[in-house]
Model the fold of this input.
Amino acid sequence: MIRITIYGFMGHMGRRIWACARDDGGFALAGAIERLNHRDIGEKITADVSLSSDIDAGLDNTDVVIDFSCHDASPVFAAACARHGKPVVIGTTGLTRGEMEKIRECSGTIPVLVAPNMSLGVNLLFKVMPAIARALGDGYDIEIVEAHHNRKKDAPSGTALGIARRICEATGRDEDKDLVYGRHGETGPRPKRQIAVHAIRAGDIVGDHTVIFSAPGERIEVTHRAHSRDTFARGALLAAKFIVGKEPGLYDMADVLGLS
Done:
């Protein structure tokens, strides 16, 4: 039985992670953490665990922490895990470079797995999109379109950025110069190596991502659509099983899936 603590427990993802963990049968809840002013602080989650705002609650008795909170809180939570010597899986999106660097520092002490998307299908996209971009070369324009529900706070999605950054790395593009986010006004002709990322926020869309490769005479579109948050929750639990007992270091879902 793997004992888990969940940061962001009452969020959409936190609740689905615990529901899927119960269905799995291989997990027990050691801690359920939410922000200080959450209306349900103190509510009983299990016979032994109440919803808490204490970031250290349950860590002494946990095997692994799963964090789906918010980007500015994740480095704080990772540091708490490092203090207690507990591995952590971070699925929070919108992490800044500075926040990611703080998390990376924690990986010198504990195993840390960071993934902007826990879906197995999306992580296959992360693997194959750079290979497609390299094979097609500069003759194909690349556009990325992502769509999410109207309550999502960050844009573009971490998944869209993850795809774009992997393509940049694989094709020698400069992330700061070659990536643009939407277009407006007189933009002029499209630069040859530009990658544009477009964000849609509407209704209750769980998560759609499409990568377009277009050249005169043909267009290739690769799309992943998430039908349920359980896709991400099951991926997070798979990551939690993977990281228990690992050496300190920074991991991602490619490691979980054997794609590294």
